[in-house]
Amino acid sequence: MNNLSRSAKPQTGLAGLKENWRSDLQSGLLVFLIALPLCLGISVASGFPPSAGIITAIIGGVLVSRISGSYLTINGPAAGLIVVVLAAVQALGEGDAMAGYRYTLAAIVVASVLQVLMGFYKLGQLSSFFPTSVVHGMLAAIGIIIIATQTHVMLGGVPEPGSLFSIIAQIPHSLLSMNAEIGLISFLGLLVLITWPFTGSRIPAPIIVVLVGILFAWHFNLAQDAAASGSKFLVSISENFSGDFYFPDFSKLFSVAFWEAVFSISLVGSLESLLSTTAIDKLDPYKRSSDLDHDLTAVGVGNVVAGFIGGLPMIAEIVRSSENVNNGAKTAWANFFHGLLLLLFVVLFPRLINSIPLASLAAILVYTGYRLASPETFYRVREVGKEQLFMFVVTIIGVLATDLLMGVILGIIVKLAINMARGVWPNNLFKIHFTIEQQDKDTLTVKLLGSALFSNFLPLKKALAQLDKGKTVILDFSDGYLIDHTVMEFIHDYTQNYEAQGGRCRKIGKAFETFSDHALAARLMTADDRK
Fold it and tell me: What SS3 class is residue 62?
């Protein structure tokens, strides 16, 4: 992207709508086609009514797009929240799915208020406290859980209630007793998802999966079979959209399980949303930077509204947002159009939605889960360093064996222990030491003293963000000790962004030891800790 392109940034607000409505409407249409099946599938997998995800995406598009601090993100339900929402429904409902749903709506409202407060008090930067490998481990564990639970749906089976490991152990039984018609629809869905990208078509693969599923569901008379047997193979929403609105029940407000749900939803939702927004900023051809705190506040406001009328929690979702960028969106109006199209579709064509097989949605989710926990993900983490893979695997095991919060906490504890084992002094674990000096009118030197770690680098991040643009910034690590992977990744991104805005960055200091051949691996800058 040349300087001229960067200077001609799209306008925002109504002026941006007038200027860019064609490109934003086109992108919004394509994102809508991706979002429709995903919203339905995520809702069902979360233990919510199918319409809940659509309600959330509509609010995320029509409301949040108008008040957010980002430019190209798409707001809606995400696969990463399936695990925490389903756990809340089961724990709070104690066997009563509808009661659990309404209690969870209350937890979403309270968690959303926390998100608004986090944004208001500018705590969005706290997402930096989570080590990269721990976050990837959390997402991979979520992917494994999605695969384990949705495989039964793909086979037309229903596992006996139990732990995650029990659900995994029951997969062979579901396979042996598989409903052949449901299995065929699921297999065709996976086949389309795997092969469709090779066709070069701009039509999103998930919408093809849904169309194929509808065709075979009609051929197999699944609607009649379901009515006769009492089982449910198809999506079911009200033909009157307002009939799918439900209201929260706050009667468990003072229970431990309620607050576990609140903190889980708030943590995972906020973390995923902030990470997604940051990632989409890197893809923005105009190199615009989102206001993370403003964006978190907007998402929180949207979640309050969604929770009060029966929706899932929303985030800035990475897959739909990436497609939004690739489809040529220019402003947040693309998000608005995607939400508006969902609203029109659910009001005008509810019968078409009710002909979608749950097996097709399960196939989409299993494919999504695989992408979160693919062998390639393990390989990429291993490339960065053995200790990164260790934290990654520990986090996965922790999430699978306990719950998401405990798994993430365990991964962070392991990371802190590794840093101490490498010689970091306790007073440097959470406190960073650095100086910034003006060498001349165009040159600044940022000198690190001691270690820069995921747990202490937030002050450095804030200080670098406040530096004047267009200068030469010298990052002097010669008196540093340990610089971990999370900080190396931040320095890399900061350098790219600063230079894209006309400045220059230069690093000083040769590593005494690096922990892998990866360019952003953790490294020791001196043989003994200085702080």
Answer: helix
